[in-house]
Design a protein that fits this description.
The protein is an all-beta fold and 52 residues long. Helix content is 0%, strand content 73%. The chain contains no helices and 4 strands. The protein has a 4-stranded antiparallel sheet with strand order 1-2-3-4, with no helix packed on it. The two termini are 16 Å apart.
Amino acid sequence: MLEHDNSSASVSVAFNLEAKLKGKPKQSAPLKGVFEYNYTNNRWLLTAARFE
C-alpha cells in the first residue's frame, strides 16, 4: 500500500524470509514493514523503516 502527498510518502511491504543452513531444515518467517519517505531538495529521502 502506498500513501503519499507532495512532501511525504509511506510504503507498506510484506514478504516471507527463508533460510537454509547447511545440515538444518529450511526455516521461514513472515515480515511486515513500513518505509517512510520525505521529499526534500528535489529528492525522496528514506526517513524511517519499521518492521514487525
